[in-house]
């Protein structure tokens, strides 16, 4: 819903670069969009023009998650490709970042679903969920974990990303991959929208989403090219304005493109990619700020914990609607209530489940893989091990997503 190599002391990442806090803040934006649309539509509330708009466009928070994920993982993984133990380190970190909380939620649903009248959960469904392969099976692609289909898509992306980065090492190669991945997604969407498949499978599948991830990969290589440019700030502003203009154009022309084999998320991917790149080059305070960054740190917990909370709050939502004359005001109150309860719950799961999993992953990396993939060295040591130029500037910072999460949590004010 969320680097440098070098060996050395496992303290603070070598050099924190605030401009890439844009990635964390945009995770917060994506999490808020998904929570808000689910408040209105998981258990349907009275419909208004606002809820209709949310239903159409706020699910794009998931596509934003996918673009951010591809971008951030390229930042952390591409400089390590070919290094000692890089593949093992990648696999360990990704599994330990996702599995602990996801498995906890799977166990929760195994117990909770029968209690709310859903009948006993087949053991085969539970085991399939634990494999992360459910997205490959139409009809099983949603997983036992509510809203967990995105995790199935992400884990398949993690499986293929190392292979992609072995062959995609330049901006030109990334552009070719973008075109190819988009073509594959369009062909897949065209074929799997046939009636014999679940009607939402094309939209919620890994292959249908591959073109979305490709925009994050392309954005990373473009970032490498632009980050040292003397006009980078103006380029970022231009990208942001172009993204906002593109969003307005797509809203104004909504529905005109859907005779084509594309999903709304795939159609919006260039806009989301431009937004991500702009916030990495030069953050705008509207999209990159302390509040959104803090929510971005918690975004995985916010994402996985919100569906059951919304389910149990539905009677409260209806009561709020009964007592509030304006449905738009009632919806806002429901969203605020949800966030007020979801925030402390997410902080608890982040502290007790996510952070220990991240730290365990780092310990396993230090014990099992090579020097190039251990905890970051001092900035000077890390830079000395890298080529000069734009690649070195990216590599000189440890931007592994799991360490960004821990570091951002340390930077958050004590009162948050």
Count structural domains: 1
How would you describe the shape?
A: globular
Number of helices: 16
Largest sheet: none
Chain oligomer state: single chain
Report the helical percentage: 55-70%
Low-confidence stretches: 2-19, 375-416
Report the order of strands and helices: HHHHHHHHHHHHHHHH
Beta-strand content estimate: under 5%
Output the radius of gyration: 21 Å
Question: Pairing-aware structural class of the strands and helices?
Answer: mainly alpha
User: What's the pLDDT, averaged over the residues?
Assistant: 85
The number of E-state strands comes to 0
Brief write-up:
The protein is mainly alpha-helical.
Would you give an account of this structure?
- The chain has 416 residues and is mostly helical.
- The protein has one domain (18-411).
- The chain is built from 16 helices and no strands.
- Helix 4 runs antiparallel to helix 6 and helix 7 (171-192) runs antiparallel to helix 8.
- The chain is globular, with a radius of gyration of 21 Å.
- Residues 2-19 and 375-416 have low confidence and may be disordered.
